[in-house]
Amino acid sequence: MLYEAILSNFEKDLNEIKSKSNSILEEAHSVYELCNDVLGILKKSAETNSFKNKAEEIHFFKNVKVEPMKYLVYYTEVRFCELRMPKIGPKHQLQFLEEQLNKVNSFFNKYTEFLIYMEEGYTHLDKHYFTRKNTNNFPTIKSYPYFKDQKFNTSHDEILAKIKGFGLYVPYLIKKKKELQTTDNQARNNTLKWTGTYASFIELIYGCQVMGYFNHGILDIKTILQELGQFLDVPKGNPSRTYNEIKNRKSTRIKFFEEAGKKLLDKMDREDGIEE
Q1: What is the pTM of this model?
Q2: CB count in 10 Å sphere of residue 6
Q3: 159 near 138, Cβ under 8 Å?
Q4: Angle made by CA atoms 108, 78, 227, in degrees to the nearest 5
């Protein structure tokens, strides 16, 4: 009954966080703290209240601890994905998501036999997998620094939590992939084209980049040129060579900006009826 009450309160708090969070990162941070708090409570309970028998110990590590643990794994991965995924470029973002899916598959492949054991509902090895007596007889996974304690870990309870956590992580990754693929397809169908010279494009991008107009100036020029060039269907060129040619101009080096400024002023004067 004690553990049921703890898990019931955990589920209520979890649902409340999900409903009130303004972003997935905010949600991940809050749930991460919640899971650590609940696991701390469970750890203290496991240390102070001895299990009546092996069946009770197995139930605790197989069914109770795994609930907050799986969400700790899931939201740790989500937070990593949200923070580390490339900030621009569908191609690079999709590649990153593929790498994350490959990581999950590699983990599942590593523990195929245990995964089959759990999916088939077997129980004959539960005393080896989910009691602390046999902790040292099996290699444990090296993943997150949560509660590495012989009094609170069995050989496979964390592996089970990671299986379940990755089970939540995969749909999240697939959803992000679909969203990016849709965005990428829409960008490819864009009808906006660059019809100026390649040198003018380079001058424009370098000028905007030095002003910090793209992502507050934190993006490198190569990424900006690649993404906007693709979006505007700019013919391929050599940006470094073109930039050097711009710097080495005999007359004005910022020809595009000066001509654009002059033509914009002329347009404003004509609209306002000002004669030259």
Answers
A1: 0.66
A2: 17
A3: no
A4: 105
